[in-house]
Every structure is written in C-alpha cells, then in structure tokens.
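Q: Is it fine to ask for two folds in a single conversation?
A: Yes, each is treated on its own. Send the first.
Q: Here.
A: Result:
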Amino acid sequence: MNIPKVLTVAGSDSGGGAGIQADLKTFQEFLVFGTSVVTAVTAQNTLGVHGVNPIPAEAVEAQLRAVLDDIGADAVKIGMLGHRENICCAAAILAEYNVRNVVVDPVMVAKGGAPLLRQEAVGVLKEKLFPLAALVTPNIPEACALTGMSEIVSLEQMETAAREIHRFGPKAVLVKGGHREHEEAVDLLYDGRNVRTFRTPKSASVHTHGTGCTLSSAIACGLAYGRELSDAVQEAKRYVYAAIESAAGGLAGRGIGPLDHAVYRRRSG
C-alpha cells in the first residue's frame, strides 16, 4: 500500500493534548503512517506545564537517522525543539537527507505561559531551520517574537509579519490569527507572491489545547498526499475547527482541555 509517511519532531505532552501525542492522533485521522522523534519530555496536563526535560541532541539525531534511513518521510512536522543544539541537529539531518515538505510550528510558549524555547535559540531557529521549511506557522505572540513587532491586531499587521518572517527563508508563512479579538479566526498565508486568508467562526470553546500542533500536523498530512499548500491549509483549518467544536463540553481534565481529534470518526459513527 502506498500510504504517505509523516514524521513529527516534537516534545511529549503527558496530558495527551499537544506535542507528539496530538500529532500522532492527527496523522491517524488523516490516514497516514506516523513516526516520531521526541525532543523533550514534559510533565503537563490541562492545568499547565509542570516540568520540561529536554532530550540530548545526540539522542534526537539517533532517532532521526533511524526513521529516515529505514522508513523515510513524505512530510515532516517540526514542533517543540527546546534548545539550540536540537535545532542545529534537526536542521543538519533534514538537509543531509534532503527532506521535503517540512512544516515548522515555532513552539515558543505554552498556552498557559510556560516558556518552551530558550530565548538564545530563537535566532538559530530563524537561521538554521526556517530556510528548510515549506511552511512556518507562527501564532500572533510567536510572530511578534520572531519579528520584533510590539503588537499584531490587524490583517495588515499580520501581512507585514508574514512578509518579514518570509525573509528568513521559508517558502511560505501562515500567521495564525486565533489570538485576535475578533468574531472570526482568520489565518493569513503568504508564499512570497500572493496573500490568502482562511476564515472560520471563532469558537466559544475554551478547550483549545494543542490547536497549533494539530493544525501544522494536518497541513503536513495534506502536503504528504501531494496537495497544493493552500488546499492543505484549508483542509487542516476545517479539521481543527471541527475538533475544537466537538470538544466544547470538555474531553479530559479540569483546565484548558484538548481537541477531539477523533471528531470525524465520532460523527460518522
């Protein structure tokens, strides 16, 4: 069977809502074969991040080589890397294996505010990893951190941020607008030539843990199937909105709960 293979390089979320766990659940829903490289182990639940334990770069390299030597990858989703050594390692291996369809979610801060990327590593992320990316998917706080902009509240500012981040080398940038105070969740895609927006209603649900991880993973799945980037983004955004809405009653925990990654199967069942 010619099933697409998608690799996630990210941190482990013990609460199951984000990181490696969210990525693999998303891969399963999109009917791709998922593989993983763990870059950090977090002690985490719906109430917050209680500990972050980075994986040494040599262990990250060993995982990457084990997967790419044998199974390969039609697309790669990069999430939390944690520190500069892991960024340099991931970038070097991806370049060595000439991996295509790399989607970088520049995970910097957890939804509850806990830092997930050391400040000194931000420059390395832009220099080493962004030039390898088919797409970078910052949310508004991440876009501010990457560009130095003090605020992003308008679509014009989102476009300015996307163009600035594009200068660091990725083929395209998707600035996610879910943090804006607006009745719609509007994401803006810039591919170096064209600007396109993707809109869904703003969900009233507070259960949004793992939204960014899930979106970038779903986009990677679309690219692995050979879909055009804009089509992959549109499909991923529809899936994430459905998963948020389905989890509105709360699936697990007493805080900001996870998405319902099985929403399509639950509906069809």
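Q: Second one now.
A: Result:
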Amino acid sequence: MQCQYCGKECKNDNSLRNHERLCKNNPSRQISNLSNLTLAFNKKVCEYCNNSFNISNLSRHKLSCVLNPTNIKECPVCSKTFSSKHTTCSHACSNSHFAHLRNKPDKYKSYTTICFKHHEKKCVVCGEEKIVAVHHLNEDHDDNRPENLIPLCPTHHQYVHSRYKDEVQPFIDEHIKKFNKKQSL
C-alpha cells in the first residue's frame, strides 16, 4: 500500500489513511493549529552567546546565560569577574571568604553540633549509635546549652514526647546527673 502523494509504503489501510491525511505533499492535509506547530519548532538565537534555542526556552536561558552582563559578578576575594550563582569564583576563594564562619562561637552552631561536642553520640537509653536525635530538656529550641541537650535515638525521642515519657525519664535523669557531676570536676 503506497501513499498517493509521496509514494511511501504503509503496512495496512489504517496507517495509509493516517499517513495520507497528514502527508506533507497532500495539498489538503489536516493539521489543526498549524501556526502553533510551527512556533514550537522555531528557534531563536541568544543575543549573548549566539546559541539557538526554542522560543519557549529562550527567555529561561537568557536569565542564566553566562555571557549575560547581569549575571557577571566580581569575586570579593580576588576581584576576578565570573558568572555563577555562587558568591565566589572558586573553592579556594570560597575557603578564604567564609573562613570566619568556621570557628564561630557555640551560640551560632547547630544544637546537634553542640550536643555531640559535649555528649557521646549515642542514645542515653539504649546506646544506639547509628541514628541519634537531640532532645531539648526544657523544650525551648533557642536554649542550646549542653546541659539542656540530650542525645536520644528517634524511638526514645518519640517516647519523651508521648505518654510513654515515664519509661525513659529515669535514664535521662541518670544521664543528667552524670553530666553535671562531670562538669563540676
């Protein structure tokens, strides 16, 4: 079975009918929204890098194009110009620029870092060492003093916040006593 417009071989009547209906050589072919179809295949060139993009993607590309002048910044460390979403041009400059954040005081560190600096990283109830959460004794998440932070596994942390609190509270109290005694020495 051959298309009467272009001569293409089709496997059966159904595929021949569909092919002829849409064949590019058919003067009365059926394509709805021909204008939308041609727009999807039109490409435009980026004014900054001269690469071709579909019209629908061109505006997104322009926002992130490395040659777009609005995306070019100056590195605060070495004054080199670069185009990136990052603050500095390289890892080396980043290490220099953010060095002041590495040794910040405890009040600026996360509570888990503070807890594991002063307590062993294991659940005070069962000794779990792989997954350890941190519980705030007074439930004030702004109070990150080491004596207010207790390492617990996720299961026992849930116990503390449930009706089963009485089952784990003796272990926590014992840990607090030992910690306070160790701090006073």
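Q: Anything structural to flag on that second result?
A: Two points. The chain has a mean pLDDT of 85. Residues 165-184 form the longest helix (20 residues).
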